[in-house]
Amino acid sequence: MGKGWCLFFLFWPIAAVVSCAMAPFVGWSFPYNNAQAASNLGIRIDDLFYIILIVTAIVFVGTQAVLVYALWRGANNREERATNIHGNHKLELIWSIIPGAILLFLAIYQMNIWADFRIKKYYPEAAVKDPLAEVTARQFEWRFRYPAIGKKLQQKPQPDDLYSVNELHVPFGKPVMIQLRSDDVQHSFFLPALRIKQDALPGLQIPVWFEANKPGTYDLVCAELCGWGHYKMKAHVIVQPEDEYQAYLKNLTQKQFYDGLGKIAAKDTGTESEAVEK
Amino acid sequence: MRFGFRRLILLSLIPLISFTGCEQPQVKFVFSQKTNELIPEAAKPVKEALVRQFGNPFELTQFEGLPTDFGDVQGTVKSVESSGKDQPLIRFQATGLENAYDKLLGLPLEWTSGKGQGHISRIKEYDFETGTIAVEKSPEIDPQSGDTFLIECVRLQFGRDLYNRHCMHCHGMSGEGTGPTSRYLNPPPRDFRLGIYKYTSTKPTSKAQEADLARTVKEGIAGTYMPSFKLLTDDEVSAIVNYVIWLSIRGETEKKLVDELYLDYSETAMAERTSEEGGETREEVLEELKEYMELDFPDTLEFATSSVAEAWEEANLEDAIVIPQKPRVADTPESRERGRKLYLSQKTKCASCHGPQARGNGTATQDFWTNPATNEKYSERGLHDIWGNLLPPRDLHRGIYRGGRRPIDTYRRLYSGIKGTPMPAFGGSLTDEELWDMVNYVMSLPYDGNR
Ligand SMILES: [Cu+2]
């Protein structure tokens, strides 16, 4: 093996480290606002990610350095012949126990986050008691059902429920829970900015909670290849202060019970208003 | 070689193989089945007229008086950037292009004043932000500030591009409803060429309002494969609607022309006329056709296009829209009961299709019906729509409202019926109070348990 190969194997770890280091500056990193998650749980998940990134980076750089060193020595030394050894007990122990310990540490360290994220017993009580909306994934759109203002979301649709499509409004600064369903195939409810991802399965109703920590319009996409129109399955989650959220619901109520004559809310979020239906 | 270059090559070929397996839709406007059933001598002028009036997907044209927005943009040169001798392009700033979007690249630009008047330049670069245009340099043109130019068809082409990206997959290149994915869908995608749309806010005989189509695009149609395109901007939606209406007008014009010719000059008519009972020779028929083409066809074409255009224009007038005279009757048990009685009455005959329990299983679904277009019986039992598809009456307990779930939407379904389907219009035969009672009854059905 020539020295060219040494450089070849040296190049990749350097390229990897450099591209990782510059990722945040060229927009290759996590979405939104300086790669900061827009939910409190999301920030904790980011921290977990960075710990794993650092551990794997150290291991990666270390092993690559050893590899390149070994290659370099071999390339410079054409006389010495390789000898056949039958393993090294001490080495085997070291590279079994250290990664094992790291994995064990990570497993224990992340348990709280996992529980908070996925185990219903640990969900914020207020959110569980009063789910925000039912979210139904469908080829290829998201449909939302909110309870009427002042009422609670029921399992079955109610006459005064409020409906919308591809636009989920959420108050910020408090934990909310949605009931996730699928009408047809498997979809996945993915809020990249909030680091929330949960599969939606036909026949199941899956609770998902999150707490948005800053207002904004975030993407809701489908993270499961669910058919040819999968790429179209995009929606917005609009995170807004509680009073704006209540105003939205009021607007939605007015629009939904429009009888062609009564007053209808202003044309800020909807597609139709008095202006259209003169 | 040892680690299997051959396998690597094979592996990299897999995506290539699967790509070639994909069906590439043909970039052309198709003609209707009936047009293709005409004898060639009759089909030819129809097809030529359509190409003349509407062009092809690459080059759209539009004749005078159409209600769709063709999108001519008049621009004025503000300032010309000095360019080097060997520069192949001339760059200049222009005003008047505020409504032209970022869609001017590659379009022809016709000079309407200055040295280059009458000449056509291709737009090689266009920066929407700064309004800078670059065109190929030629000795005939020498833009000076104040020179004017015209770019045509901007709006329609913008709509076409969006339509081809988002809609063509199902609805087809010509709006004929047979895009590459259509065969997997039930209900099938709408064929726009009849110019009929189901969920409108307009009177029974009127076409759809632009706002109706925009609402359908934005909200999708619950219970069908039509998804919501809410993330498109209002402007994009209106451009798509503009193009869809244009496609409809093309289809309707074609239909009107063919309907004039079909009875006498289809292949079957020809065979009949030249058979022993018919007693005519092919030459005689062709002679008659030639006469028709010379004397009457231009008028037919003129009438077809203008009547279609007019109908679309009228639909967008204020008085085309259905507005109740009285506000919704309070949604009380009494009102619902009155609605239920009406539902079951002979006056409305709702139950004959939707069933006594409104489960969508009325007796009409068990009959063989006659196709109004061909006067032949359908091969399947049950109701059909005007596009020839089997159309089961809606189960009203499902709580899925394709045309919208507002009371006014249900009111309009009852008032105007559902266009293109056997659902009749009750506006006129029922009073406003009666209609609202029915609305209250129908909208209560999904929530009344298992009655
Ligand atoms: Cu999906």
TrEMBL record, chain A:
- Output a single Gene Ontology CC term carried by this record: plasma membrane
The cofactor remark states: Binds a copper A center.
Query: Where this protein primarily resides, as one coarse class?
Result: membrane
Q: Describe the location of the Cytochrome oxidase subunit II transmembrane region profile domain by residue ranges.
A: 24-121
Q: Name one GO biological process term.
A: ATP synthesis coupled electron transport
Annotated membrane topology is: Multi-pass membrane protein
Q: In what residue span(s) does the Cytochrome oxidase subunit II copper A binding domain sit?
A: 128-251
The protein's location, in the record's own words, is: Cell membrane; Membrane
Q: Which residues belong to the signal peptide in this entry?
A: none
- The UniProt record lists the EC number as 7.1.1.9
Q: What keywords sit in the KW lines?
A: Copper, Electron transport, Membrane, Metal-binding, Oxidoreductase, Respiratory chain, Translocase, Transmembrane, Transmembrane helix, Transport
Q: Which GO terms describe its molecular function?
A: copper ion binding; cytochrome-c oxidase activity; oxidoreductase activity
- What is the top EC class of this enzyme, as a single word? translocase
Q: Which residues cross the membrane?
A: 7-28, 48-72, 93-111
Q: Name one Pfam family in it.
A: COX2_TM
The protein's required cofactor(s) are namely: Cu cation
* Catalysed conversion reaction: 4 Fe(II)-[cytochrome c] + O2 + 8 H(+)(in) = 4 Fe(III)-[cytochrome c] + 2 H2O + 4 H(+)(out)
Q: Which family does it belong to?
A: Belongs to the cytochrome c oxidase subunit 2 family.
What is the role of the protein in this entry? Answer: Subunits I and II form the functional core of the enzyme complex. Electrons originating in cytochrome c are transferred via heme a and Cu(A) to the binuclear center formed by heme a3 and Cu(B).
What protein name is recorded for this chain? Cytochrome c oxidase subunit 2
What organism is the protein native to? Gimesia aquarii
Gene name, please? Answer: coxM_2
UniProtKB/TrEMBL annotation, chain B:
Keyword annotations: Electron transport, Heme, Iron, Metal-binding, Transport
- Which residue range or ranges hold the Cytochrome c domain? 154-248, 334-446
Keyword Lyase assigned? no
Q: Which GO terms describe its molecular function?
A: electron transfer activity; heme binding; iron ion binding
So which domain of life are we looking at?
A: Bacteria
Which InterPro entries does this one have? Answer: Cyt_c-like_dom (IPR009056), Cyt_c-like_dom_sf (IPR036909), Cyt_C_IC (IPR008168), Cytochrome_c-type_DH (IPR051459)
Q: Which PANTHER family match?
A: BLL4482 PROTEIN, BLL4482 PROTEIN-RELATED
Q: What is this protein called?
A: Cytochrome c
Which species expresses this protein natively? Answer: Gimesia aquarii
